[in-house]
Please model this.
Amino acid sequence: VYFVRTGTYGDLFPGGTGAAPENSVLALDVVRKDQPAQRLLVPGTEGADVESSPFELYEATSGALFMVWQAQVSTIHPVLNLSSYKDGAWSPVIQVTGNPFARKGSPQIAITRDTYDVQDATDGTYSTGHRTTLHLIWWEETANGAGNVLYAPILLLDGNYVGSFHTFTLNSFLSGQAPSG
Model:
């Protein structure tokens, strides 16, 4: 069982030395049957940025826990960070910016998986690849004080981030406008 906690480093890790005690951080509590709970610092949250709005989703097929959260960078740049935890290790953080000055909220993810076959050019044999799509959705404030719902499909091939994605404004589908990218 996994629980994500927000708070200051000093409160969540009393006596710890991994960050300044006043820094806002995220902690992951891992609870296993017949074992004491283990508290882990979520990588990338130990700095002076203010972390908030964590959302976690366990995906049984891969055995990975995926997390998304907001970080307020330099007090004026809200970004979303996405990472996963599996077999005692964290994946590199994927940063999603959208509008770098717009307030963001309610980040959530859903996960789909599929497989595909690839033929080797030299010997003609086939191998199976595994594709995971992290469907990230969040709210973002607009210049007029209203808001947009944004969507970004983030692709992992055999568990590795491919390095780019497009962001779609879902509101544009309601008004019949073309999505932004």
